[in-house]
C-alpha cells in the first residue's frame, strides 16, 4: 500500500511507503546528516512498539518496523513528525567544520591517540560524535576502557590531536614505543593522584558525615562541616566542575555533568541555608558523593591498569639503548637515534634492539616472548632478527631493517591495541543507550523535583530526592562492562602468549569447531631433554659420551646444551677438544683426543659416506613419537644416536580434554621437512 492511497501528510518529511508493520519516510532533515539519523534511531528505539529502525543518510531515508497492536500507524507517524521537527532544530554542525577542507591529494592516514580526561562512557561517545562531524575523518573509534582513539582520515596527527583537545580533553600520540613508555609512566602518576584524592576525600568526609548524622544544634558544628567540605568539593572534586563547564559550553553532557550538578546543588543550597541561619544542610551529601565517586574512579583506574598490563609487558621488551658501530667505534645511543641501515652490536644476554639482519656472528636467540616459540633459534649471517628478543650466548653484528612502528614488536602491540579498543556488536547497542542516558537522567531529576513539590512536599525533601535520582543513576557500569571484558580477555591472553587480532576474532572464538596447536612450547614445556641414547655395535658408551660432550661443549645450538647436560648427569668427564667447526644446517665437526667426531642429522652423515642405515632404523620410531634424532659418528663410523624430546606441560592433557568437552576438536601442526 502506498502513502498516496492513505492521503497521509507529514510536515517534516514524506511518507513514501507504508505496510501493516513497516513504514518508510524521506526527509530533507536527515539527508546527508548521519548524526541526525543516529540520534533519531536512538530516540525511536526507546519507544514501545518500535521493533527496528534503519536509516540511509545519503538519501535521507528512514525505515521503521513496528508492532501495530502496541503502536498504531497513525500514532507512529505523529511521533515521527514530531521527532523530525525536534531533530531538525539541531544546529547544523557542518558549519563548524567549514574551515576544514578535504585535501583529496593527501593520503588517508591512521592515528592512534591516548585520550586523557575521560571520566565515563559518555565522554568517549561525545568525542566520537564531535570527531565524526569533521569531513576529513572517515573512521573514528574512541574507547573509554583503553583511553584511546583510532582516527582515520585525510588529516595530520597534529590536526587530529587539536580536534580532540577542542572538545575539552587532552590527546597524546603513542605511535612509537618511546611515546608509549612515557604514557605508561603518566598512567602510573594518574593512578597515584587518584589514590591521593580519594584518601584525602575520605579523611575529610567521614567527620562531615558524622556531624551530619549527629545533627547538632550548635552553629559552630555547622560551620565546621562547611570548612571540612570546602577542600573536598573544590580540590578533590574540582575536575568534575571543570569538565562539566567545558562540556556545557559545547551544549553537551556526561557523567561529570550529573555529579557537578548534584554536588553543586547540594553545596549551594547548604551554603545558602547556613548563611540564612536555617537548618537542612547537605554538606555531608556533597562530600559523600564526591568521596564515593573518587573511590570508584580510583578502583576503575586500577582495574584498567591491570588490563593494560599485557601492553606494558610488550613495551618493556624493547631495550632503551643500543650499541652503534660507527667508524670502528662502539657508541651507546638511545634507541630513538637508531636509523634503518645502521650497524649494531649485540652481546650475549642483551636484547635485540630492533628488527634487523645478521651480518656477522653465530648465536642462539630466544624469541619466545614475540613468536611463542620456546626453543632458541640459531642465528647466523643472513638471518632475520626480531627486536625485543634475547641474544643467548654469541656476539652478533646486525644491520637495522626496521625501526619504530615498522618493527614486528610494534605491530604486535598495535594488534593488541586494536583488539582491546574494538567494539563488538553488543557494545554498540550499549553505546546507543549510554549516549542518551545522561540527558534522560537530568530530565527525570527535574520531574522528580517538580512532582514532589506538586504533591505538597517540602522543598528540602523534594530537593534531596531529585539529587538522589541525579547521582544514583550512573551509565558508567553499563558502558564499561563490555570494553573492560574485552581488555581483560585480550590482556590475559597476551600475558600467556596468545595474541587476539581484534574484537571480532574474540567474539568468533565462541563458535570455534577446531583448534590447531604448534606443539613446541604450546602444549610442551619448551625444555628439550635427552630421552633415549642408543649405542652402535662395538662402541664403548663412556668413550662415546666423553667425546660427544667435549665436541658439543663449544657449540651454541640449544640441542648441544641439552646433550652436554645429559652427559654431565651421567657423571662422564668430557675429553680434550683440539679443533671445532660448526656446519650450519647440518651439525658440528670436531677433533677430540685425536679422534674425528661428527654430530648432526642422518642426511649429512650419509653425504659424508658414513653408513647410518642401522641407526636410521632405530631412529624411525623415535621420530614417530615426535622426538628429534641426533646421530654421532667417530672416525668415519656410526657410533650412536640421541633421541631428544620436549615433555608435555603438566596440564596439557587436561586442557585438551576440556576443549573436547566444549565441542572443540584439537589438532597439532607438524613441521615436515
The total count of helices amounts to 22
| Terminal Cα span | 69 Å
Mean pLDDT, to the nearest integer, reads 78
Low-confidence stretches: 1-7, 90-98
* Structural class designation: alpha+beta
Largest sheet: 6 strands, antiparallel
Please count the beta strands (DSSP E, at least 2 residues each): 25
Radius of gyration (Å): 35 Å
- What would you call the shape? elongated
Strand order of the largest sheet: 10-9-11-17-12-15
Give helix % range: 40-55%
Strand content: 15-25%
What do these coordinates show?
The chain is an alpha+beta fold. Helix content is 46%, strand content 22%. It has 22 helices and 25 strands. The protein has a 6-stranded antiparallel sheet, with no helix packed on it. Strands 19-24-23-22-21-20 form a 6-stranded antiparallel sheet. A 4-stranded antiparallel sheet has the order 1-2-4-3. Strand 6 and strand 7 form a beta hairpin. The longest helix is centred in the N-terminal third of the chain and has 38 residues, at 177-214.
Produce a short descriptive summary.
Helices cover 46% and strands 22% of the residues. By secondary structure, it is an alpha+beta fold.
Task: List the keywords.
disordered N terminus; alpha+beta
SSE topology sketch:
Blueprint: E1 14-18, E2 22-26, H1 34-45, E3 50-56, E4 61-66, H2 73-88, E5 109-116, H3 121-132, E6 137-143, E7 148-153, H4 157-166, E8 170-173, H5 177-214, H6 219-236, H7 238-249, H8 255-276, H9 283-307, H10 309-316, E9 321-326, E10 329-334, E11 343-346, E12 356-360, E13 363-366, H11 368-371, E14 377-379, E15 384-385, E16 390-391, E17 396-400, H12 408-421, H13 425-435, H14 437-454, H15 459-472, H16 476-495, H17 503-508, E18 514-518, E19 524-535, H18 541-552, H19 558-569, E20 577-583, E21 587-592, E22 595-600, H20 602-607, H21 613-624, E23 628-634, E24 637-648, H22 652-661, E25 665-669
Parallel strand pairs: 18-25
Antiparallel strand pairs: 1-2, 2-4, 3-4, 5-7, 5-8, 6-7, 9-10, 9-11, 11-17, 12-15, 12-17, 13-14, 13-16, 19-24, 20-21, 21-22, 22-23, 23-24
Helix pairs in contact: 1-2, 5-6, 5-9, 6-8, 6-9, 7-8, 8-9, 8-15, 10-12, 10-16, 12-16, 13-16, 14-15, 18-19
